[in-house]
Automatic annotation (TrEMBL):
Residues 168-310 form the XdhC Rossmann domain. SUPFAM superfamilies: NAD(P)-binding Rossmann-fold domains. It comes from Pseudomonas rhizosphaerae. This is Xanthine dehydrogenase. Residues 15-67 form the XdhC- CoxI domain. It comes from the Bacteria. InterPro entries: MoCofactor_Util/Proc, NAD(P)-bd_dom_sf, XdhC_CoxI, XdhC_Rossmann_dom.
Amino acid sequence: MNSLDLQVVQQAQQWLEQGQSVCLCTVLSTYGSAPRGPGAMLVALADGRFCGSLSGGCVEDDFLERLGRNEFGPDNQVVRYGEGGLAPSLKLPCGGVLDVLVEQFVPGCEALEHFSLMLQALQGQQRIIRTVSLDTLNRTLDVCSTQDSTVHVSDRQIMIRIGAARRLLIAGLSPVAEFCASFAVSLGYEVIICDPRPELLAGFNLEGVKVIEQLPATFIANGGCHASTAVVALTHDPRLDDLTLLEAVRTPAFYIGAMGSQRTSEKRLERVRRIGGLDDETIGRISAPVGLRLGSKTPAEIALAVMADIVRVGNGVGRGAL
């Protein structure tokens, strides 16, 4: 899931707590190229305020106008944009078709509990499955352990699986870390920077990045990583990097990396292996030197190589396929 979906759920909770009814929209399927895939969410109010995205901007205005005119009604329903859809005169720039599930939530304990469980899933506490019955007000939410596709449509029911949003945990602030954070935000990651040095953090501020004044290893040990987390140590400081790696390999993080030259990386891995008593399989989870070999020299180029490798692993692409 995309970290933008975290913002959607949090905004929905806030509006519900204020006593406002909300409309939750979920992308079910796309035909043709699309900037937002199945499972992407948007929450909106009848007055036009919204959070999230369905298409990258090409249908939101029309959708919000229809919502303001109360064209959708209270029942769960699917609306289609593109050829043969709700607005056949509105052609998508990609020439495709977009199917969207529309649900209405009224303020109350039931709605708040529903979004609370969704938030827990996006934060990596558990995987859930939402089952929505069309043309009714019925929906259920259950814990789910499978890793199947995000959305499944069968007859008059829609099942949406929700898991953790992709997270990038950056251990230590540095010039490379700043560019990594910026790239990761653009890619839709939830970005967290951990550094116990207040003098470095004082001048850093980047929208969409959470900064925690804490030893990265402590944050990880306290549950800071889930299976959709990438951990990168980018300081060259063994006091930060080594401890980070020792804790990270004990988590289900899908990517663990540390910056440094080939020689520095070999010494670091040997040190971490010895101190942690790690076997070959465990030490093999660490990418060091971190990132793809792009001949990077500047902090921005190094950060690009790091994020490219994280995306590669996250998408299940082997190095040999590049």
